[in-house]
Design goal:
Arc Repressor Mutant, subunit A, 2 domains, alpha+beta
Length: about 230
């Protein structure tokens, strides 16, 4: 007797975690309410309490490459980040995150400004910034779409999902659409292996994405970006 006849998995069909086990708590909540689909979250520019100021990088829809780097509330967050590290070199990653949040990508000039704030050499900051793929070294679209193709997502169609995004957006890997809305990239892991294929769009995760979901998702983003 086959697995499917016994009620087990069909080996010819990729397993997909539905991501929702029903309401198991004492409150009557819908899946949308539990998963927060209508609310992404608002993070204060000043970073909140100093203890969490280093953990708040955010990919904003609006990118401002020419914005002042550390002024007003962002200066407050920078000071809070600096206060957490006796050796300012330790603050480099969260400060680079902050700089990218403000401007959308890291230019050589931005890296120099970060180096000056942390009393580091330009070469050291550039070496760190160019090592990590999470930092954009060139402008990106309003929506940065990152598709995971690591092993869990790959086994569940990650390559096909990535191809669907490229096809329906009409761009090649890493390119930005002519309207400036979408930049599509491939990433190694989004740490959502239980819900492949995982896609991160700016700072929001989408789980169990399949190729046929892509056109509607892009249409939804176009409406948001209009």
């Amino acid at each position: 007797m086959s697995d499917s006849k016994r009620g087990g998995p069909d080996r010819n069909v990729p397993f997909r975690n539905p991501g929702w086990a029903g309401n198991t708590g004492e409150y009557e909540l819908s899946e949308a309410e539990v998963r927060g689909e209508e609310y992404v979250g608002i993070r204060s520019k000043d970073g909140g309490h100093p203890s969490i100021s280093t953990t708040m990088p955010y990919i904003l829809d609006e990118k401002s490459p020419d914005a002042p780097l550390f002024e007003g509330e962002y200066r407050e967050r920078l000071d809070k980040i600096r206060s957490r590290y006796p050796d300012l070199r330790g603050a480099l990653i969260p400060v680079l995150n902050l700089a990218q949040e403000i401007r959308g990508h890291l230019t050589s000039e931005t890296m120099k400004e970060v180096a000056a704030e942390l009393e580091l050499s330009d070469a050291y900051v550039r070496g760190v910034a160019t090592f990590y793929t999470m930092y954009n070294k060139a402008p990106v679209g309003r929506f940065l779409i990152q598709v995971c193709t690591n092993i869990s997502c790959n086994l569940c169609g990650g390559d096909e999902v990535l191809a669907a995004f490229l096809k329906h957006a009409g761009v090649e890997m890493g390119e930005t659409t002519d309207d400036g809305l979408f930049t599509i990239t491939e990433v190694e892991c989004l740490a959502a292996c239980g819900f492949p294929t995982a896609v991160q769009i700016n700072s929001r995760y989408y789980e169990n994405v399949q190729p046929e979901d892509v056109p509607a998702l892009l249409d939804r983003l176009r409406e948001e970006g209009a």
